[in-house]
Batch of 2 targets.
Target 1
Amino acid sequence: MEHLIDIVLLGLLMITGFAIVRMRSLLAVAMLTSIYSLLSASLFVVLDAVDVALTEAAIGAGISTILILATVALTSDEEKAPRHTPLLPLVVVIATGAALIYGTLDMPHYGDPTAPVHRHVAPTYLHDTPGEIGVPNVVTSVLASYRGYDTLGEVTVIFTAGIGVLALLGYRTRRRNSQGPGNRKLVVLRVIAKLFFPLILLFALYVLFHGDYGPGGGFQAGVIFATGFILYALAFGLGNAQRIIPHQLLRIMAAVGVLIYAAVGIESMLLGGKFLEYRVLADDPVTGQHLGIMLIELGVGITVVAVMLIIYYGFVSRLHSGDM
Amino acid sequence: MMDLVLDVLSWVCLLGGAIFLLIGAIGVLRFPDFYTRLHAVSICDTLGAGLVLVGLMLQGGLSLVTVKLLLIFYFMIFTGPTAVHALAEAALQSKLKPLVDDREP
Amino acid sequence: MSELLGHYNYWIVIILMMTGFYTVIARPNLIKKIIGLFIFQTSVFILFISMAKIEGGTAPIIEEGISVYSNPLLHVLILTAIVVSLATTALGLALVIRIRQAYGTTNEDDIHVQDEED
Amino acid sequence: MFTTVSIVILIAIAVGLVRAFRGPTLYDRVLAANMIGTLTVLMVAVLGFMTGRPEFLDIALVYVLISFVSTIAVLRVVALRTGSTGAGKK
């Protein structure tokens, strides 16, 4: 049965991909991109990757779509036809595709438990996690502990992207919220936003600290937290959102998150371990691991929230009316 | 005995939800204009989704799963209508005309 | 038949990948190119997650009474890759906005024409 | 039984996709995206029960929130566009 769902979802994804290429209206393409993300996220659930599904839904269907839409709104909607007939690209693409498909013939079958990818370090992680780290979610333990260096690198990449967007788009603070004529139409949205804003933030904290036991962690929680603020900004205007969490604070937060992460590493060195070796952080190795994972997830979360909001503010503050 | 009753109830709810989802989907495909399609989507969002979630709650029994399902239910009954309302508002705002039957009665 | 089912995921992934690739190289609109890149990235995610799946396995969250789990390592790689993909998408879109400011267009062909005129 | 429900959900998603492709207005596409969001939530919930690990409903919760916020965001951005240039009708 799961096979059937897998096959149907992949088919739908393929059709959506073709439609995205064919369609000329970029706003429509942005909507299809959002659908594409949702479909791939549900595919990840079918393929057992719950953490990945959580991230893809929050990032692909949420923030990416909003950014693409904001860019379309800032530039132009219609796509011009290409000047040249796309014959050469078509040949290149078909040739590359054929070569890649030829390459897959040597790959192990889908779902094969003896595939080389399952023979290397993954069994060790699965086997050692309960004893060494003491958290049930192996994805969290690999992400935060076994491969903590990688994750530090990723967080730095996010931080750099935030700086890049800041350098390219700058920011414009809005002191006052414009009380334009359109605002009375937002009553329903505002009531709902007031109701949901605290719930979303609470849920983000749950995802952050429950990440050891279920799907979740710093990346996902950060994005959900930022989504809460985006909802607030949509309902009450960007100016009011910036009053709650001003731009200066965001820039500090982005740096603080990375620093917390690196500081945990240095702290563990000072306590006589290696860089990011959490078990020296407490008397009991397992408690130390818990503490370390908690702290670095917090750092990741803070950076991700800050960078997401920096990006969002950067894009949306360029839209003219500033109502959102 | 109690288990059997709960099971049957939950199957009834799930099947009912599925039927409403199907009806909503057909409506989205077949209705003539945007404003009529909104009605079809509302069926999916509230009745269809609600019944499926209730059916799952009956399966879950008294546990954290049911609490989460309740939370999803709670979110859904608020977000669905709000989103549809915002959509209708935005469409009206952009002067999208509803399709009117102007034949003589 | 088993050959077909065994490689179905990979083939669809390659078709998606090529769709994204085609959009990037053949379409002159810069936003469309970035969306093509997004499709390409997602296809890579699906490739990795398909490889991580083990028949009869379940999500890699340890619980009593379950012995087969899907591969957590690939999940970790893709989890971080998704966040990085957002970072690249955001940077790309920011660049598009700046290019539009400088050239007044998001069409690559028009930009080339303007560059040649200068 | 879960199988039946998930097949129905898949059919409904496919129908929603058809609507998203055909349009004709942007609002129809947003409507289709919103519907697919709802259906995905249900799909994830049913899948959890089907595979016997229903504790992953957090994902479904996130989907509800995200699809709501992105629908609202789309509408606000489109409203800004129609306000300034009068585009976005088709």
Target 2
Amino acid sequence: MNWDASLLWQFDILILIMVIICAVAALALKDLVSCAVISGAYSFLMCLLWTEMLAVDVAFTEAAVGAGVSTVLLLGTALHIRRKSKD
Amino acid sequence: MKRLALLIIIVLGVLLLRAAGDFPDWGDPSSPASTYLSPYYIENSLRDTEVPNFVTSILADYRGYDTMFETVVIFCAGITVLTILRHTHRKREKIILPRPQRQGSDLILQAAARLLVPPMQLFALYVVAHGHHSPGGGFQGGVILGASFILLALAYDLKTVLKRFKEKKILLCAGLGVLIYAGIGAFCLFLGRNFLAYAAWHKVLGTSEIMAHSHGMLGVEIGVAITVMAIMLSLYVDLASGGDLDEGL
Amino acid sequence: MSFEQSPILILAIPLLTALAISLFCQRHDRFAYVLLVLAMAGSFVAALLTMITVVQSGAAIHYRLGDWPPPFGIELVIDHLNALVLTMVSGCALLTAVYSLRSVREESGDRIAHYYTLFGLLIAGLLGMVATGDAFNLYVLLEISALSSYAMLARGRGYAYYATFKYIIMGTIGACFYLLGVGYLYIKTGTLNMADLSDILSTAEMHESVSIRIGFILIIVGIWIKMALFPLHGWLPNAYTRAADTTSCLIAPLMTKVSVYIMIRLMFSVFSVDYVFRTIPWHEAVVWLATAAIVAGSISALAQRNLKKMLTYIIVAEVGYMVGGVWLANRSGLTGAVYHILSDALMTLCLFMAVSAIIFKTGKTGFDAMENIFRKMPVTSVVFVVGAFAIIGIPPTCGFFSKWFLIRGGIEAGQWGFVAALLFSSLISAVIFFRLIEIAYFGSFETHGRREVARAEAPVSMIIPMVCVAAALILIGIYTNEIVSGLIRWSLPAGL
Amino acid sequence: MLIWPPAGIWTRASEMNELLALIIGKSNYWAALILLLIGLYGMIAKNNLLKKIIGMSIFQSAIILFYVSIGDKRGATIPILEHGHGPEAEQVIQAAHYANPLPHVLMLTAIVVGVSTLGVALAIIQKIYRVHGTIEEDEILESIDE
């Protein structure tokens, strides 16, 4: 089986790098609302990755739960407390 | 704390790196995971259960016991958040949560929400009902259904949604969904089969045992969808208003 | 209904009842209480029936969920070890449910039905964890019991929220380590069923595999975090101390013991004696870790002035007993550890119930709550003394026998440090409890002169379960031989 | 498609560049490993409780990525039977044509568990903020000591 025929591995590695950047950013930013939004982006990229890895059901769930509801919940909390974080 | 964390991470990283070298390659069709158990599901799912989506058939039937408890986890989370936030111990609380600023109502947002919510709910029902044949199922449909209410609450306010969907009803739905799942499973006991053996339902439904599996799964997915919808909404409602159920975001 | 279905009934009854309470009992607190007690009783009866079946047939029961044959479906496997732990968990839950009548109202105000729902779900989760024969299913049930315990612990006094938050972080790390470890096993074997895993893992190739070994480490460390083994115990004392009374009576005896059971189950039913003790030759190091846990837990307990906090540090020490006993790698040690799961659950339950009743009546949490308790609450204080004797290890109670087995195991294994730590910890417990009993009997110095103290016994709903536990401590001690030869001997893995 | 790597590198990889094959051949596992460590670091080292929770969800999704990677199969399609009904339904089903569905099922459960834990943790954070007036761990510890 030929690698580049079956899996879009270049695309894959690009997303993997972006996912890691998002993860670092979500932890490093000082503004909690931005953190929440970036963690939503992180989930969405994960969901792309999983679709591409043939896990459609998981990706569907992650798109609805991780990128959707979790982000709203995080935002809901972040807006209720002091927005600035010390680290 | 930072140094301790770095130490833990370095130790764990070295351990996991050692292990990863030992794994079969990513996507290797001859890895143990791809050759041992999964072919059975792929080859027999249609014969055993009449469901072409293997994920659904494993989720709701072969490993239905897991999924039942997964629904219970969701239910439990909803009750947990409710008891934590709605539990009144005001004398211990120093701070009143700052209210997020609302700049009046936004016409465009509200109009868009009005247009979006009905198709979303319809799509959610489709996802639940068509989970046997396409990606999706109870969880995904339930989350979308819950998200449609959340969208409404975001565009208007919490009161608009809670007027249509009272907190009591939300709780009732949450419990009802899990009870549908567990009830379908427990009823099999009365029909003389093991817990969650949907085949037992063929006596009641008047179909073949295999179709009974398919119908059992549909019933279970509906139960899951109801619970997930209610709990997603309840989580949002409680977290966005800090447990007061007044304003929301 | 036939006995065939009893394994599933053990956990289906609490689960369905919890749901029914949440649906129908929002306005009927009394009804919720009655329903919960009935459910726990039903679960206890089902567990007893299952245990009798297992003992009579001498073989493990395999219950196929959904009629799917393992390893494709999930199965419940109940052998001698499970049956004992299931009966213990459901019995403790029944007693705590009876006990909760009076104290729960003060803890949870208007939301009693929710409290009982969580109670039922917690017990269903714990029982499911004990009964399951599937590695991934264990994770799901672990999370159910964890989530419901977060809710119950968060209702406690003082800074309970922060303590609970720490528990969430640690608990999630533990559960995720476990999940990752199971993933490592899955990627190498392709299966999740415990019996099937054990078959595949018994080959020499798998014994050599690095990733299986690291998977094993991840699983064990994850469970150690869950059971609060020193030095991973940081979350436990605060969370349990601040918890409300019924909650701590329910969670403190059961959670750590069930985790210990899971460790034993995974070590011997998924991996093998050969793998754990011979391929990975670290068991002596783990015994030293357990020794450190015993010493650290005992010394911290000695330093406490808060009754419940002192008990939680004793739990940390007791976890060290059991982990050490298991990793001694001989029959006496493991017998002691399994026996100690049973006896320790009952002794901590006994002490927590007695202490909670005293706190309930006096409203104090420090040692001063114990003043003149013998006159104020004679029954409670007798129960307290029985529990204290069991922890110290005084003969008619079961605490003596578990220590005896553990010490014999330590001597056989040549682990003198462990033996010394056991004796040291008994000594410390004796110091702590005799001081408490002295305060309880004579009162503190300031109050020596005043003799007249009004009787203020705990309510009947608390007295009955307390007396039952105290009686059980003595009965189990008397029938040690029968329990060991009838149940525990059969649950020891071959080749040990 | 892209200029690098040259065509056919994967067939020759075992001889000439095992390291590269190791990196690309298991790239998902490495990424999962990195995310796992990032998440764990966030959970332990971050001072802000909300950051800890974000770290927790990164940690959990890293594990999910790991499992999903196990289920991936080269040359396979999504785990839904094509032509499940109708005249072609009687075909012989070949397991190699479909991705491994079992990890997907497990991870659906794990996602749901993740969001449940997230919700509970957020509720507790809100309560901590009300009681202590802050969600910075050091300030909370100070206020407990007082």
